[in-house]
Amino acid sequence: YPRHRALETQLSEFNLTAIEAMLGSYTKVLFVRDPFQRLISTFMQGMGSSSSFSSFVQDILDNRQDNTSVSWKPLVSLCWPCLVQYDYVVMFGFLRQELGHLLQRAGLPADNLLPEFTDTQVQWTYSWLSEQMFSELSLQQKKQLAHFYRWDLSAFPFSNSFLSD
Q1: Which of 25, 28, 50, 152 would give a disulfide with 55, using CB separation of 3.0 to 4.6 Å?
Q2: What EC number(s) is this enzyme filed under (predicted)?
């Protein structure tokens, strides 16, 4: 949208007419990841101050109304998929396939632009990590997490998520 190119400007700073015009002129791509995997990734990167995954999750659950970190905030509250008509939704774990398709649709040579992805290895690693981390949580924590991410689990096909059960 040519008139508003400021990098620091957030969409919410514009009026409804300008927002509709901007969203109508862009190709909108949404990248999504299983919320439980997002929690694991955040914990593994040391972004939480807790010593164990269980206490990290409990800190989030205890303070969820106050948490503003995008690292674990539910996706639907960040990107509003029910209000914004995204042109593409790209799932973590299928990046090479989906980004290749997206680049082809844009008329760009996908083979030359894509980095090497190791989706299969990453999926296996997160599957193993998820099992380990999930086993650390109490039944109450599991239920609370599933409730906290209920809208993400409803909006996106995270069928293999540990939180889906």
Answers
A1: 50
A2: 2.8.2.-
